[in-house]
Amino acid sequence: MSDSIVVIGGGIAGLGVCEAVRERDALVPLTLICAEPQLPYDRVRLSEILVSGASAESLRLRPEEWFEDHHVDVRLGAWVAHVDAGARTIVLAGGEEIAYGSLVLATGSNALMPPIPGIDQDHVHAFRGPEDCEAIRAAAGTAKRAAVIGGGLLGLEAARGIAAQGCDVTVVHLMDRLMERQLDAGSAGLLQDALEMDVELRRQTQEIAADRLRFADGDELEADLVVVSIGISPETTLGRAAGAEVNRGIVVDDALRTSLANVWAVGECAEHRGLVHGLVAPILEQTRVAAAALLGDSGAIYEGSIPSTKLKVAGVDLFTVGDAEGDGQAVVTDVAEGIYRKLALRDGVACGAILLGDLRGAEALSSLVRKREPVDDALATLAASLEAGPAEMADDVQVCNCNGVCKGDIMRSVTQDGASTPREVMAMTRAGTGCGSCKPLVVDIVALACGGEVADEPAYLCPCQRQTREDLAAVIREQGLESVSEVSQACGTGRECGACKPGLAYLVSEINANRHREERDARFINDRVHGNIQKDGTFSVVPRMRGGVTTPAELRRIADVAEKYEIPLVKVTGGQRIDLLGVRKQDLPKIWDELGMPSGHAYAKAVRTVKTCVGSDFCRFGLTDSMGTGIEMEQAWEGLHTPAKVKGGVSGCARNCAEATIKDIGLVAVGDDQWQVRVGGAAGGNVREADVLCTVDSRAEALRVSTTFLQYYRENADFKERTYDFVPRIGLDAIRAAVMDPETGAALRERFRLAKAAATDPWLERREPYHPNQFKNPDDEDDDAGEPLLVGPPSGGAR
User: Fold this and answer.
1) Minimal CA–CA distance to 158: which of 114, 199, 128, 178?
2) For the sheet containing 146-149, what is the strand order?
3) Structural domain count, the chain
């Protein structure tokens, strides 16, 4: 295919080329070769995996359907063995030959591992991919002390991830300050003070021993876990072997062409005018120019990028642009607040800026530096930047560094493309969908574009397609759709960014009364393994104790499991249950089997628990059987998923010991078998007293009304909408009319009965897993099926 384009490299650069090509040409044959076994993910946010233990899938840039819709042939786990530029073919490691008209090398980079004696030991790790995160997290759980060699951005993020596992960590850096490429001495000092971790500067590691580092000056540092993050090495293997000119990176011209005919290079593997760029913003600039050049635009020129970044470094807000060292400067510092603001000049022109702790005016300063604006008074300009708002920003000021979105792009999405709310703009432009630091500014620019009045945000289930819950529910019912993939195929839902898939999964199951076709890849990790993931990547197990009532036998089993599996924390929850915290993923099936108790659904958007007081059985103030009522209530509801978590309570008298008046659904005894039914309570950051739905004269009627309301909520609430938001939004009168009406109430209860009949205990999957790797970790040796393993060569595709 003489006009076909093949892109080697499934990272941000490779995907960026595909996106930019498709913006210009919807039909040119396009193939993306990914060495890693998963679709392109946001490597910039890799530290999130290290902290939380989530999979690389959680950082996925586009869902599988996007590639299908945009006719991109994706080859996962495909290693390119050879490029024949003369014949215009590439050969995969398995022997398959692919012809191309134009080839783009986006092979990325590898972690730089210096030749330090001992660096090849098992306790020494790079920090470059998901597989590194998994190994580091596992080691941090047992290490006595860790050391991170490298005080740049990735090194500090690695240190933060290790510290999140409860392991003491020291950052070891060769230079005299942290992040010396972006920061000056003053800002680096403030950053170091804010990190709250040990830092060793001016330290040259001479040897890595089994339990310590040895430095060139003879000092030693104890460390039985070592992470090396000192920089990157451009992956140029394929380009060099094919005959391209290579220095540090693959040399490209201003159109991103290599020295080989019909071959381009972008991203961390490319060297342009002597520079290799490793930040997202310049890489995306390159991809747009390369795409234009690939499609015949002779005017497509890349003139280089002024480096800038806006992010959180180990939790500290930071913005840098250009070169912060000049012949003139203005600096404002508030040491007590951890704030540092600097504007640097060279020959009277803005050349760089640093903002630490207070990022106001970042875009205004960035614009000055990028346009090389003359500055008469640096201090006055720095002060004025604090007051600069969206109206003062030029259209070409970049707002979202992660996705290369400028103010003008956001304005046009409103004034020309029909967007009217921040969520619509973010879905349309992708601004604010990376690290999220620019979201407040995006909201302000949308307000500016709308003339100061922003339309009420529709409760879209899928913002990308502007589809509400009601829109999609109608289609599901009309066409009898039974799976997420069927809805996606019919409506386009979830095919752009995929973020709405969990909400769609709930909607499909609810409308089909749990007689749907389950597609587990649309669920959150908690729902995949039926446990609540913790910040260290372990899980919590909360067996159901209906009404907060248990038995000595159950308590013995819980104690035996906690001891056998060395569970680090056993805690009584606010919902009168016992939480086993710190459970390893691979231990979940065995623990569930030995407990022999049903799931408490503490991890899910589902009916969680019904809290009770002891009631009339033991309490001298109790008016009725609150425990029995709570147990019956929980038995009737357990196993059902809901738009958001639902907590219940039953208080046996007005003293309200079970706090039923601040539950999603609460019953309060107000007489001898007389009950108040309350809905929409909250006890979180904002306390809301539940509204009285009705007062009834029997326990059976109280349960009937409560169940009817629960089903009404299940059918009408937006995904993630708690009852305390749902009730005020719909209105108590409207809810009361639907729930108390004999005809509509009976229909709601019948649909509830059907859904309940189809519900099963998810913990039964301990015996028959949904897929073979459901409860395995990515580094298990026998993983050979199910979820893709997070292993392989660099994202570029070179072997």
Assistant:
1) 128
2) 124-126, 225-228, 146-149, 169-172, 198-200
3) 7
- 17 vs 21: CA distance, rounded Å: 6
- Which residue's structure tokens are 């990308």? 464
8 A C-beta contact, residue 105 and residue 89: no
Q: Which residue has the tokens 């601040």?
A: 662
Among 208, 230, 252, residue at a domain's last position: 230
Do 63 and 181 have their domain in common? no
Closest by Cα among 70, 29, 42, 65 to 504: 65
Q: Is residue 45 part of a domain?
A: yes
Which stretch of DSSP H or E encloses residue 30? strand 30-34
> Domain residues for 548?
519-604
Average pLDDT over residues 440-453: 82
Cβ of 55: how many Cβ atoms within 10 Å?
20
For residue 328, what are the β-bridge partners? 345
Measure the CA–CA gap between 235 and 736, rounded to whole angstroms.
Answer: 65
pLDDT of amino acid 794: 33
Distance CA 281, CA 373 (A): 21
Opening angle at CA 192, ends 191 and 194, nearest 5: 65
Quote the percentage of the chain above a pLDDT of 90: 61
Residue 300 lies in a domain: no
Q: Are residues 723 and 650 in the same domain?
A: yes
- Tell me the helix, strand and coil percentages in the chain, rounded to 5: 35, 25, 40
Residues 52 and 87 in one domain: yes
CA geometry: angle 340, 162, 401, nearest 5 deg? 45
Higher pLDDT among residues 117 and 438, named by residue: 117
- Which residues neighbour 464 within 8 Å (Cβ) at sequence distance 6 or greater? 427, 428, 495, 496, 497, 500
Q: 774-797: b or e for each residue (b if 16 or more CB lie within 10 Å)?
A: bbbbbeeeebeeebbbbebbbbbb
Name every residue whose Cβ is closer than 8 Å to that of residue 45 and which is 6 or more positions away in sequence. 59, 434, 435
**Does 572 lie in the same domain as 673?**
no
Closest alpha carbon to 111 in 131, 92, 83: 131
533-581 pLDDT, tens per residue?
A: 886 778 899 999 999 999 999 999 999 999 999 999 999 988 899 999 9
Residue 73 shares a structural domain with residue 161: no
User: Residue 525 domain-assigned?
Assistant: yes
Helix axes 439-449, 422-429, angle to 10 degrees: 110
| Mean pLDDT value across residues 580-598 | 90
- Please give the helix or strand (H or E) that residue 263 lies within, else none: strand 263-265
**CA pair distance 564, 405, nearest whole angstrom:** 53
Q: Which residues make Cβ contacts (< 8 Å) with residue 186, sequence separation at least 6?
A: 331, 333, 340, 342
Q: What is the pLDDT of residues 350-363, one digit of tens each?
A: 999 999 998 888 88
Q: Tell whether 466 and 477 lie within a shared domain.
A: yes
Specify the CATH number for the domain of residue 467: 1.10.10.1100
572 and 688 part of one domain: no
- What is the Cα 15 distance to its own chain's centre? 18
Q: b/e string for 442-476 if b means 16 or more Cβ within 10 A? A: bbbbbebbeeeebeeeebbbbbbbbbebebbbeeb
Q: Can you give the CATH number for the domain in which 198 is found?
A: 3.50.50.60
Instruction: Tell me how far apart the alpha carbons of residues 799 and 789 are, in angstroms, rounded to a whole number.
Output: 17
365, 404: one domain: no
Q: What is the pLDDT of residue 455?
A: 64
| Of 17-26, 461-470, 635-644, the least confident | 461-470
CB 153 within 8 Å of CB 179: yes
For residue 156, tell me if it sits in a domain: yes
pLDDT at 791: 27
Euclidean distance between CA atoms 8 and 98, whole angstroms: 12
What's the start-to-end Cα distance of the chain, in Å? 25
What confidence score (pLDDT) does residue 661 get?
Answer: 96
CATH number of the CATH domain containing 314 = 3.30.390.30
